[in-house]
Amino acid sequence: MEKVKVGIVGLGRSGWDIHGKLIGSLPDKYQVVAVCDADKNRREEAEKKFNCRSYLDLSSLLKNEEVELAIIATPSHLHAPNAIEALKSGKNVVCEKPMATKLSDADLMIETAKREGKILSVFHNRRYSPDFLKVKEVIKSGKLGRIVLIKMNWSGFGRRWDWQTLKKFGGGTLNNTCPHAIDQALQLFGEKEPEIFCHLERTLTLGDADDHVKVIFKAEGASMIDLEVTSTCPYPHDMWSVMGTQGGLRGNAQELHWKYFDPAKLPAREVETKPTPDRSYNSEQIPWEQEESWELSKDASPGQLGFYIDLYDTLRNNAFLAITPESARRVMWAIERCHHLGGM
Fold this sequence. Notes:
Blueprint: E1 4-9, H1 13-24, E2 30-36, H2 40-50, E3 53-55, H3 58-62, E4 69-72, H4 79-88, E5 92-95, H5 103-116, E6 120-122, H6 130-141, E7 147-155, H7 173-176, H8 178-189, E8 195-201, E9 212-218, E10 224-230, E11 240-244, E12 247-251, E13 255-261, E14 288-295, H9 305-317, H10 325-342
Helix pairs in contact: 4-5, 5-10, 8-10
Domain Gfo/Idh/MocA-like oxidoreductase N-terminal: 4-124
InterPro entries: Gfo/Idh/MocA-like_OxRdtase_N, Gfo/Idh/MocA_oxidoreduct, GFO_IDH_MocA-like_dom, NAD(P)-bd_dom_sf
Domain GFO/IDH/MocA-like oxidoreductase: 132-250
């Protein structure tokens, strides 16, 4: 099949270290034919690496008729205007997260893509994370029973002082890191619209945006999700803690463990009102079936490469778009709601 000709817009941490490397890992499917960046040294580096054309600005790159897919990897506050300009020029677009800094801009991006008849996807690559896929699989299996609570914790301790700590550039942990975590949370939450609680704080960052985020998602008939993303936790918790009526799961991106039991094997019990014989609390041995585990080192899934593998199938074989802009809009809705509730 014909390679997809790519233009990378922005050669910073994301454009160069993530998208550039992923595209470079799929040489049979993609070819970088153009890049643009304000930094001359970055442009020259890309010319040598990809043997491509380079441009100072987006408008010049979009005039390159070879470019079929524009990857928008510019600062967050530029995502919406850059993506809309690319769509209007006749390019398909992959936009870095966050999709936009306002929900209304996300809606305009979706409207533009539909009007122009072009594909718009958002780089929610964490849907392809092997640990997330395994957590989904275990929950879907029913082994853990009804899921009562899913705790997600992305924690560490450290300061930042780059542009992503400044509100004027759409920075902050909620806009920056949380789109990945919120996207995973909403995938696990299901189709219902969640009631959201959010608390935001500025703690260690040198900028004026948030770097400590607490979000709770709840709805009748849905599992509650407790999400924490913080820069002020010197003793990091498990990334995953799933609590069910028949078992539970814990772990991180490297390894997961879960155990469960068959409720039919529990002895029959009735509520008693008389004193216990030995003045103790009720207790019994739960007949755990077994403890299972997963290790990243033994996982054969393609990881975030799966995003571009699936996108290629969409562009060349008309396959269903895996990361739809509507699903990314749901993340934007949650983020905007959190900004309102969190007061930052």
